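Trying the structure run again after the queue cleared.
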Amino acid sequence: MIKSMTGYGNAKGEYQTKKISIEVKSLNSKQLDLNLRIPYIYKEKELDLRNEISRELIRGKVDFIIALDMLDEETQTNINPTVIKSYYQRITDITNELNLKIPEDIISTLIRMPDALKLEKQILTEEEWHMLRESVMHAICNLNEFRVQEGLAIEKDLTDRIYMIDHLAYSLEPFENQRIEKLKQRIKNNLWEVVSKDKIDQNRFEQELIYYIEKLDITEEKVRLVNHCSYFIETINEPESNGKKLGFISQEIGREINTIGAKANDVDIQKIVISMKDELEKIKEQLNNVL
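Done. Tokens:
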């Protein structure tokens, strides 16, 4: 089964007066590149979240965002009356001493003074963490479903192209036989141009010809190429997506195609080799997005 590295998922959750929105997006990457943005109250669980995301998503450039909104007007800050009264008293003493008038907006000034407002420390309860973790898993599940759907299209494209390479490999055979005959005749003609037929040792000539032709034989490369294509299809049909393994197999396929091209010595075979290379390049491009 093929999974794409591209995906999107989201989830929502509520806890008391809090509304939590989770969004996760992933793109291609050789390794897991995780960008995690979470509210301060959940910072203590950042390592747990990272481990959970890494275990489920494995690879990709992942942006994971948790947004937090309040469902009512409840504020998380409180006024510190003792500090404000102290500031007011000191300001009053100074203004009286200098015979100045107290400004009408004195309250807004006092609130901005150091320690005039105290933040109410938020505590992450086990119940809230349980709700958050379930929402996170739901978002990841949505993203994985997206990856599977994208993977189906990639799998079909990869399978079609591998079968095309396999078909092209079998189509080499008639040109091989023609190539050998053409090659024999070309060597004979070239030799006869410089040496007369009656001076040629036919036994030695046949031995050298066989040796030369064996160097150009592509039977082994074709067998290995077909085997690599079969292994590629087997790997695609494995339960787990394995883009790296498919990448290694595609490298081996490319090696056999290049060797066939180097030994071709025939225009028709070279055309088939170019077609196989074209299909393989498109396979490699698709594999960049396979998990």
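Residues 151-287 form a domain with the Four Helix Bundle (Hemerythrin (Met), subunit A) fold (CATH 1.20.120). Worth checking whether this holds up in the mutant runs.
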